[in-house]
Design goal:
There is one protein chain. This protein is an alpha/beta fold and about 210 residues long. Strand 1 and strand 2 form a beta hairpin. It is globular and about 55 Å long.
């Protein structure tokens, strides 16, 4: 029986893409992921995540990674539809991998509702939606590693031209970069999420 795990990376960031990744595998091979030491990407060092990324894509039967741009995020936030946007992309990943059952990490306060939405958008695929699925199910942990490594690579690419830190509002380097860029250019770079409250606050105060 093929099962799939889906997770995101970069949802809370002020800049860069939101990444959705999925992996599919025959249920009997889940032990292989556990044997590698696969766990929630937040509990692993960047170096270990990169090593595991390479091993995961060799073990799984299939995988799919989607990147959502800051522009798309801004359009959705204006309609109060960030969860809908994420559900749409998770449904895309689920449809591509076409497994018997898909486990997803819910960003909605109501995981069952989020699961129903993904199922509806993916031609009624069987969805099991949970909070903290990335630390509860190894298949979702594997997806979380693929999402995080892909997101980190996108940020590293941006860092070649900008000193922008991690991209999160809790990072003073990120906040300083966004404020100084806006002050100098009077516009935000295309990779900054203008709909984010910390970004709007900066734009209002400068």
């Amino acid at each position: 029986m093929q099962i799939c795990g889906v997770d995101d990376a970069g949802r809370g960031s002020m800049l860069g893409p939101l990444v959705i990744a999925g992996v599919s595998l025959d249920k009997k091979n889940l032990k292989k992921l556990s044997a590698l030491g696969v766990k929630d990407s937040k509990k692993l060092s960047p170096q270990l995540r990169e090593q595991l990324y390479k091993k995961i894509i060799k073990i799984v039967d299939d995988y799919y990674i989607a990147k959502i741009s800051s522009k798309s995020i801004d359009v959705s936030v204006k309609k109060h539809g960030l969860n809908d946007l994420e559900a749409k992309y998770m449904a895309k990943v689920v449809s591509k991998l076409n497994s018997h059952t898909s486990y997803v990490d819910s960003c909605d306060v109501n995981p069952a509702r989020f699961g129903r939405e993904i199922s509806r958008m993916s031609d009624n695929h069987k969805i099991k939606s949970y909070h903290h699925a990335d630390s509860r199910f190894v298949i979702v942990s594997a997806a979380s590693i693929l999402a995080k490594v892909t997101r980190d690579k996108a940020i590293m690419k941006l860092r070649k031209d900008h000193n922008l830190g991690s991209g999160y509002p809790s990072d003073p380097i990120t906040v300083k970069f966004v404020a100084e860029y806006y002050k100098k250019n009077q516009v935000m770079p295309s990779f900054v999420r203008k709909s984010w409250k910390p970004v709007q606050k900066i734009m209002k105060n400068i």
